[in-house]
Amino acid sequence: MSLAQWNEPLPEAEREELLESIATQVVKRGLSVPAIIALEMHRPLAFILSQSMIALTPLFGPVVGLNRMQFFGRLLAEPDGVEALIRRIEDKTV
User: Fold this and answer.
1) Do 92 and 27 contact (CB within 8 A), yes or no?
2) Which of 34, 16, 2 lies closest to 78 in space, CA to CA?
3) Backbone angles phi and psi of 78, in degrees to 5
4) Domain regions of the chain by residue span
């Protein structure tokens, strides 16, 4: 996995699949409210968190999955990535 892949924007189909997957798991576990609060609190740090995922990949990648970490990092790097995730969780909760 090259560094260039981390800096590319997510294709729309992969972005929608990732948002749907995360939102479904959050709602399924009954964590909608805590997840939305955490996302809102950390929204200003989203880009920094996306960059730190590059450094954390060797540690968490084998457990979580390299592709999932990369996709989530790329989602956080997008200016509206956190907002899209919050909206998707809210839509699934209602």
Assistant:
1) yes
2) 16
3) -70, 140
4) 11-93
Rounded Cα distance, 15 and 11, in Å: 6
Average of per-residue pLDDT values in the chain: 90
Name the pTM for this structure. 0.85
**Cα separations in angstroms, 14 against 3, 53, 73, 75:** 18, 18, 13, 10
19-51 pLDDT, tens digit each: 999 999 999 999 999 999 999 999 999 999 999
Q: H-type helices in the chain, by residue range?
A: 3-7, 12-28, 32-42, 46-64, 66-77, 81-93
Alpha carbon 56 to chain centroid, angstroms: 14
d(CA 9, CA 75): 8
Task: Calculate the alpha carbon distances from 7 to 37, 41, 47 in Å.
Answer: 27, 24, 11
